[in-house]
From TrEMBL:
<dbReference type="InterPro" id="IPR001638">
    <property type="entry name" value="Solute-binding_3/MltF_N"/>
</dbReference>
<feature type="domain" description="Solute-binding protein family 3/N-terminal">
    <location>
        <begin position="10"/>
        <end position="248"/>
    </location>
</feature>
<keyword id="KW-0732">Signal</keyword>
<protein>
    <submittedName>
        <fullName>ABC-type amino acid transport substrate-binding protein</fullName>
    </submittedName>
</protein>
<feature type="signal peptide">
    <location>
        <begin position="1"/>
        <end position="18"/>
    </location>
</feature>
């Protein structure tokens, strides 16, 4: 009996994948590593490339709304209000998991690191050390991110900024001494601005976190499974790992 059911189950799965499915999404503005409107077809951003890889793997699966370039807080509101169905890529937090779901396959991992001026001899290796240093000048962190909430929970005084580029300019002008952010984003902006001789990374990785595909809370389970199957295949084939290496 079970031997007859298994092929039937596979056929149902293949039939579901053959059906056209259109999901709403958006691009995050101000995050060039994720979505780079000026990066061209060879470097459009890691999250855009993952989305494109999913579409190539499952041609019946399409995404609309890519013309929307919205800031992170707007992305969160769209997800919470069910106005987008899926968003590549987002960190998890307890607050976020109350408002929407996540596909279980990690897309890539970011590291929490600090950046200082090269003439700053201090080693700030722990959150308590960051908290003490922040009493003199607040630590810069990207506005509205899960990283900002983590620093506040650790009693670190922060100043939120709109972009890594703005943070680096403030650091150059001595308006701040430390940036706390994602390694992959900071590396990109330091390289683009040719600030490698003026900026240095701290020697500590404070935390590692995977980015995930976020899904609106009431997305049908069959749609989530279809997306998960595609991501699982990309993970198994090494595509996700290769993309993460490409953007580091």
């Amino acid at each position: 009996m079970l031997r007859w059911l298994w092929p039937f189950t596979v056929l149902l799965s293949l039939s579901a994948q053959a059906q056209d499915l259109v999901l709403r999404t958006a691009q995050q503005s101000g995050s060039l590593v994720k979505y780079d409107p000026d990066g061209g077809p060879n470097r459009p951003g890691i999250c855009m490339e993952i989305l494109q890889a999913v579409q190539r793997l499952d041609p019946g699966l399409q995404f609309t709304g890519m013309e929307q370039h919205v800031p992170l807080k707007r992305v969160e509101r769209l997800l919470a209000d069910g106005l987008v169905d899926a968003f590549f890529c987002l960190l998890k937090s307890p607050e976020r998991e109350k408002q929407w779901r996540y596909a279980p396959i990690p897309l890539y991992t970011i590291r929490h690191v600090i950046v200082q001026r090269t003439d700053d001899a201090r080693h700030l290796d722990t959150l308590p050390e960051l908290a003490a240093a922040s009493r003199r000048k607040p630590v810069l962190v990207m506005r509205g991110t899960a990283l900002a909430k983590r620093l506040l929970q650790a009693d670190v005084a922060i100043a939120e900024v709109g972009s890594e580029r703005e943070a680096l300019q403030m650091l150059l002008m001595n308006r701040a001494d430390v940036i706390y952010g994602q390694d992959i984003n900071l590396q990109r902006h330091i390289g683009d601005a040719r600030l490698g001789s003026k900026m240095k990374f701290g020697r500590t990785v404070f935390q590692e976190e995977p980015q995930y595909l976020a899904l609106r809370a009431d997305l049908p389970a069959a749609h989530e499974e279809r997306l998960t199957q595609a991501l699982r295949r990309l993970e198994r084939d090494g595509v996700l790992r290769a993309l993460a290496e490409k953007y580091r």
